[in-house]
């Protein structure tokens, strides 16, 4: 078989697997948005069937044959050509998929599906003991998974690879320690400042239908294409790509909370701009996919925080917000509002954390989940270790386990190795933005005029259109001309918050 | 292999095929309700993939082996047992599926998908010539399909079998002729009556959100279970079952039209009560499916017309309608309203036809599509034949082809042999209702009190829970104690309209 024919068949198969995944994505979206409660059992059966089918396609020996035929082929001559990138990435995915025994995949899916329900009850009842046996099972299964996948020195790296290919926890730990050394004094200085913004204005009454309309207006202004997407309400905000012309975001609305829904929209718009900016001709292949979970998150955090909590953004949007919510905002100035949406305050909750303390929440989880997987921390000792870490690093004590080690659903869903991608996203987003601002010159003035197309175009050219051509760190270096590190984020936070807090 | 093991595997496979079909059903529902326009191309790819997968499962030679092993097995001893019914029906479906060459299935799908778009344009432009070559192709493909499937004497019967197993067009023609002989004089007498209701009240202003709420209230009152279903708005009303606990209906709302949305809801609720009343333990097998398209339609027409356009129904709902729409209905009496929703008037349009003339629209289509398939009528001569039939049977001339032979999308979708199920549904619905009313005694008083559970329970027991145990005509005979025929419908229409029109 000629290499081109083998490649064409490989791509056809990759696209078919992606098609199956996209059917599952729609079923999951529907489950979160419109499915009646009576549909839950059948939906689980549908999703299990599609997951099984996807696994079957991913591990089909024919894929291995095709990849073997393509070894040393002329298609690999230019390692950055779409064909070479696709072959490299499909090889990586195939090797991972076939290493996992089907029984382990199914057992993990089964345990996590129960564990997630148990976690919900445990959190509601503030009772860690209920969740403990399930977390123990999950940690055990994830250890087996890491052993099956293989790793160089640390089992955790085998799991991390799923979200951030090529990243090693040792390097991450070094990066995160450097970040922590900068963040702790900044948090301390902000807490010690005499200037503290009044956030009560964000908790006035914001009618839900107007929140929806205002969020949609902002999404469209940032570049979210509603002909190729939708915005709905769900219990937890998310973004899902159903197909190249169909990317859906959600948020949640509360009457007395401006921030949650609005910044939720901006966050998901960030994810969606990435999806809507991927090369449509490569859809269903690695060249048409996001580079990593961290890079994906970088776009969410960039649009939510770097853009959406900037002064020029609110110079443009505050007059519009005042028209949308005249009762709530008539007596508020843009400066007061800008300060309120940037209030920094250590709190026990990650999701509601500001952009300065947020990363400390992640670093704590990164340390704890590595210790759990390595066996250095017993699941039974997790609540105490959690509280101790919060006291030491954020200077606060979680009121209980529900707002402590039970607050996130990631571990109950089997996501170990995922948390670091949030901080990687913050770091990458800051570095990308700093470079875009340098190259584009007057981003602040563009934002103040409500123009965001220049930034979208820059990101599309330097990030979105590359798909998985580069590993994440190299993508950032290519885009910015500097090695990936923590300094751009630290610089940006220092500059913004020293001015805001007069420190 | 023991028969029980073969049967278990057969059922497992049937359920898997049903699971794939249910994924497609959700994707189709989403396409009609919430999908952004940019998603259309990818959605077509998803649906084509699932259709291919379903066909592959349906024609898997293993199914043939299992069915062969089950021949003469003790499981068939009682032909009405669930196992015997499932084996009989799966055998019928498998034999049909394997007779169709995959190339023909794919070519028909391809042609119909273009033809349907062409039909939309042709209707918009009132230009039959645009659609003619596509209808010629479709008629040709359906002839090939009939030849591949096989038939006793008339090719049309092979297509009819898809919707009404066991029914022959010769018998249908006899039944329909008898019905026509009764309907024509009834329509004439109504047209000649001096008493004609004022329908302008139905075209006052009905705010859309209150139409939605009122429709949902009626749906719930009739027994539609919103925990296991939803109601949405679409361009064309439909009902789709995603799973045993998830049945969704839609309708369309227009500000100056009470009837379209409301009776659309009742119609789809009829379909939905059938789906929600199927035996959940048999879901995914023939014992858990509707007996035929005609029986399904009988439930839609029964709840829309026999119940929903009855006087006792409006005795209960009219005061509620007046509260929902005080501006539109303050000066209207229940008698005026009841007469308005039962106005009989020959018109060129099937979808908006009243329950008396409706069947004449169907009988015309039944005659024409049989003539097209047999080659007795050339596609090019269809417009003239259509107009001639409307003049002769309904006494009216369609204003143009858009409101004439281009009005329905069935043929463009490859549905030939489907139209008769509408009239079969009307006939079956009337016969079932007459018997239920006899057995239950005081249905009128129950309806006037807003109680519909007695009728739902009767239908569940006599129709829904049987799944595909009986062929449609035998199901009706079992349920009513009389052979299936046209007289119950004629009797019901005569009684209702002689009183309404004083004839």
Give your account of this protein's structure:
The structure is a homodimer of 503-residue chains. The first copy, chain A, has 503 residues and is mainly α. The first copy, chain A, has helices at 3-33, 40-58, 61-70, 82-99, 102-124, 128-149, 155-163, 169-192, 208-222, 258-277, 293-307, 311-324, 326-329, 334-340, 358-374, 382-394, 420-440, 443-448, 453-462, 472-480, 487-501; strands spanning 229-233, 239-243, 246-251. In chain A, α10 (258-277) packs across α11 and α11 packs across α17. Helices cover 64% and strands 3% of the residues of chain A. In chain A, strands 1-3-2 form a three-stranded mixed sheet. At the A-B interface, α1, α2 and β1 of A face α1, α2 and β1 of B.
Q: What pair of chains forms the biggest interface? A: A-B, 36 and 36 residues
Structural class of chain A: mainly alpha
Helical fraction of chain A equals: 55-70%
Number of helices of chain A: 21
Strand order of the largest sheet of chain A: 1-3-2
SS elements, strand count of chain A: 3
Instruction: For the record, give the distance between the C-alpha atoms at the N and C termini of chain A, rounded to a whole number.
Output: 68 Å
**Quick check: average pLDDT of chain A?**
96
* Quaternary: homodimer
Spatial shape of chain A? globular
Share of β-strand residues of chain A: under 5%
Low-confidence segments of chain A = none
Spatial extent as radius of gyration of chain A: 23 Å
Sheet with the most strands of chain A?
Answer: 3 strands, mixed
Could you state the order of secondary-structure elements of chain A as H and E?
HHHHHHHHHEEEHHHHHHHHHHHH
């Amino acid at each position: 078989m000629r290499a081109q024919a083998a490649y064409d068949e490989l791509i056809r198969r990759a696209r078919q697997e992606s098609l199956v995944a996209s059917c599952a994505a729609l079923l999951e979206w529907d489950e979160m948005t419109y499915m009646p409660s009576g549909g839950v059992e059948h939906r689980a059966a549908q999703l299990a069937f599609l997951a099984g089918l996807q696994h079957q396609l991913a591990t089909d020996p024919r894929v291995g044959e095709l990849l073997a035929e393509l070894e040393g082929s002329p298609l690999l001559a230019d390692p950055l050509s779409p064909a070479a990138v696709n072959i490299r990435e499909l090889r990586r995915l195939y090797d991972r998929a076939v290493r996992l025994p089907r029984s382990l995949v199914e057992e993990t899916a089964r345990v996590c599906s129960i564990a997630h329900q148990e976690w919900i009850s445990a959190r509601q009842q503030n009772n860690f003991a209920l969740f403990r046996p399930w977390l123990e099972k999950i940690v055990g299964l994830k250890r087996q998974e890491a052993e099956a996948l293989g790793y160089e020195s640390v089992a955790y790296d085998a799991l991390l690879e799923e979200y951030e290919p090529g990243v090693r926890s040792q390097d991450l730990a070094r990066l995160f320690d450097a970040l922590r050394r900068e963040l702790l004094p900044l948090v301390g200085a902000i807490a010690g400042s005499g200037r503290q913004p009044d956030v009560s204005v964000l908790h006035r009454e914001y009618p839900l239908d107007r929140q929806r309309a205002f969020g949609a207006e902002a999404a469209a202004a940032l570049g979210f294409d509603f002909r190729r997407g939708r915005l709905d309400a769900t219990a937890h905000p998310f973004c899902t790509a159903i197909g190249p012309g169909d990317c859906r975001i959600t948020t949640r609305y509360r009457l007395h909370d401006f921030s949650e829904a609005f910044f939720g929209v901006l966050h998901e718009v960030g994810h969606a701009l990435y999806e809507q900016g991927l090369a449509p001709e490569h859809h269903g292949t690695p060249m048409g996919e996001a580079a990593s979970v961290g890079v994906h998150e970088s776009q969410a955090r960039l649009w939510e925080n770097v853009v959406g909590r900037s002064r020029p953004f609110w110079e443009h949007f505050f007059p519009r917000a005042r028209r949308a919510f005249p009762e709530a905002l008539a007596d508020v100035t843009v400066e007061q509002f800008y300060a309120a949406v940037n209030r920094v305050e250590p709190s026990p909750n990650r999701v509601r954390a500001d952009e300065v303390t947020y990363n400390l929440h992640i670093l704590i989880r990164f340390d704890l989940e590595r210790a759990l997987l390595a066996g250095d921390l017993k699941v039974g000792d997790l609540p105490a270790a959690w509280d101790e870490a919060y006291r030491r690093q954020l200077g606060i004590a979680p009121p209980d386990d529900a707002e402590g080690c039970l607050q996130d659903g990631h571990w109950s869903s089997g996501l170990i190795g995922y948390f670091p991608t949030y901080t990687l996203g913050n770091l990458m987003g800051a570095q990308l933005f700093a470079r875009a601002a340098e190259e584009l010159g007057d981003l602040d003035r563009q934002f103040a005029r409500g123009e965001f197309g220049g930034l979208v175009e820059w990101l599309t050219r330097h990030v979105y259109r590359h798909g998985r051509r580069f590993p994440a760190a190299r993508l950032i270096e290519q885009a910015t001309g500097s090695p990936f590190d923590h300094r751009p984020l630290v610089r940006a936070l220092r500059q913004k918050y020293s001015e805001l807090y007069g420190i």
